[in-house]
Recover the amino acids of this structure.
């Protein structure tokens, strides 16, 4: 599995970010080909101290090639272009292959 993580610093207008993200951006994300699962949260916490990010998003793909193809698809390009409409604080995008652990 390959994971994509987006970390969002505090935006200029948190209420606009939340509303736009849920009603407009996430429906675009859901259309990305090859997307296996996704999740997000506005309740980011840090230990100790205050949270360094306002929101977080995680997406899962079968592998890096599937993620790359999804991001380069017309749907993926729409998602990337849409970020400027709500993320006035910018966005940090990370991706990595997931290594499984055992409990």
């Amino acid at each position: 599995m390959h994971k994509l993580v987006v970390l969002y610093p505090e935006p200029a207008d948190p209420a606009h970010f939340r509303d736009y993200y849920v009603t407009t951006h996430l429906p675009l994300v859901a259309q990305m080909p090859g997307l296996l699962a996704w999740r997000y949260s506005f309740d980011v916490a840090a230990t100790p101290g205050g949270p360094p990010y306002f929101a977080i998003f995680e997406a899962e793909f079968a592998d890096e090639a599937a993620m790359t193809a999804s991001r380069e698809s017309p749907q993926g390009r729409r998602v990337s272009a849409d970020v400027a409409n709500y993320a006035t604080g910018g966005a940090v995008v990370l991706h990595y292959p997931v290594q499984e652990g055992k409990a």
